[in-house]
């Protein structure tokens, strides 16, 4: 029988926390691992987002907010000590299982038990009434899957709207005016006696119920490796902001499954360089697709043919191959 583990992580350093999460995913290949954690005053951008475009650089600098890129898809989120983050690392389910709904199930159960009318909505959101209280994201590594989410318990929502830039194209309804108007705090929907500590305890119990578990304590040699990963990857400008190219072509489209943004250089009719951004729900890095497009002729049909070599849902979530190709070649919808 495989062991199940709970990781008690009291660190609030975002660079360390994401390094720890990645290390657990790539080095602990058996059992279910649950980790609850918090980041202090941080913007966490999605794996495929253009950090320079997503963040209000001046506000972030003036308020000492750190910026770090995660390895999963989706959009940028603000973390403070009013948030509770959870990570679940487990074996991948059978083909066809809705992993997002599977892993958010225990979270929604806890919220409902506490009196909040929570439900899963859209691509990756947990909603209470008309407010988003959590976004979630996933990635796969070999036979393992990482699912994580950021739960807004008592977050400073004014910082959320001020620290992020949101393109007007992302909003379909004129009634939605800002990020702040779309999100809410869990504390506003549960009894006053439910504190962050109580919520954390209830969530851990729910995620690990029906199975025994051990506290996962990492040996010193693994802690050294996590510190190295933090220093050499998550603290670097190259990882968090990336090295943009001087591009000749810049295309952007919004689909039901998220946004796609492409920067390219094309020479003599062939794609020389390609960077792909967006808030799509990827399980694998879109850079693998972008790399395969290098050398491809800049024609919709040939770009689509390359895209169809991939299991496209792993790279762009519910965005279809023909939609990605239409953004790359700027084909009208």
TrEMBL record:
One of its GO terms (cellular component) is cytoplasm. It holds the Pfam family Lip_prot_lig_C. GO terms for molecular function: ATP binding; lipoate-protein ligase activity; lipoyltransferase activity. Its EC number is 6.3.1.20. It catalyses: L-lysyl-[lipoyl-carrier protein] + (R)-lipoate + ATP = N(6)-[(R)-lipoyl]-L-lysyl-[lipoyl-carrier protein] + AMP + diphosphate + H(+). Keywords: ATP-binding, Ligase, Nucleotide-binding. Residues 28-215 form the BPL/LPL catalytic domain. Pathway: Protein modification; protein lipoylation via exogenous pathway; protein N(6)-(lipoyl)lysine from lipoate: step 2/2; Protein modification; protein lipoylation via exogenous pathway; protein N(6)-(lipoyl)lysine from lipoate: step 1/2. One of its GO terms (biological process) is protein lipoylation. It comes from the Bacteria. PANTHER family: LIPOATE-PROTEIN LIGASE, LIPOYLTRANSFERASE 1, MITOCHONDRIAL. This is lipoate--protein ligase.
């Amino acid at each position: 029988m495989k062991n199940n583990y709970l990781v008690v992580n009291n660190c609030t350093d975002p660079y360390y926390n994401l390094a720890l999460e990645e290390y657990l995913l790539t080095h602990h290949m058996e059992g279910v691992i649950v980790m609850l954690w918090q980041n202090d005053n941080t913007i966490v951008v999605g794996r495929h987002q253009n950090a320079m475009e997503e963040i209000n650089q001046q506000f972030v600098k003036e308020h000492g907010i750190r910026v770090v890129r995660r390895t999963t898809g989706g959009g940028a989120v603000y973390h403070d000590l009013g948030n509770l983050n959870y990570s679940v690392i487990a074996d991948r389910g059978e083909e066809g299982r809705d992993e997002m709904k599977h892993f958010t199930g225990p979270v929604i159960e806890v919220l409902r038990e506490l009196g909040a009318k929570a439900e899963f909505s859209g691509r990756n959101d947990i909603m209470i009434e008309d407010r988003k209280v959590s976004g979630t994201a996933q990635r796969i590594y070999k036979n393992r899957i990482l699912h994580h989410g950021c739960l807004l318990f008592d977050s400073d929502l004014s910082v959320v709207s001020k620290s992020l830039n949101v393109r007007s194209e992302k909003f379909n309804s004129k009634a939605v005016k800002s990020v702040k108007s779309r999100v809410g705090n869990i504390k506003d929907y549960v009894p006053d006696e439910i504190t962050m500590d109580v919520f954390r305890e209830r969530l851990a119990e729910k995620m690990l119920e029906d199975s025994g578990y051990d506290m996962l304590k990492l040996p010193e040699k693994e802690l050294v490796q996590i510190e190295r990963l933090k220093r050499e990857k998550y603290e670097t400008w190259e990882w968090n902001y990336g090295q943009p190219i001087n591009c000749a072509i810049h295309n952007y489209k919004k689909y039901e499954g998220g946004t796609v943004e492409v920067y390219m250089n094309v020479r003599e009719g062939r794609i020389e360089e390609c960077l792909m951004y967006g808030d799509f729900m990827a399980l694998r890095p879109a850079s693998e697709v972008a790399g395969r497009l290098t050398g491809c002729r800049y024609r919709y049909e040939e770009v689509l043919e390359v895209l169809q070599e991939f299991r496209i849902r792993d790279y762009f979530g519910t965005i279809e191959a023909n939609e990605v190709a239409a953004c790359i070649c700027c084909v009208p919808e």
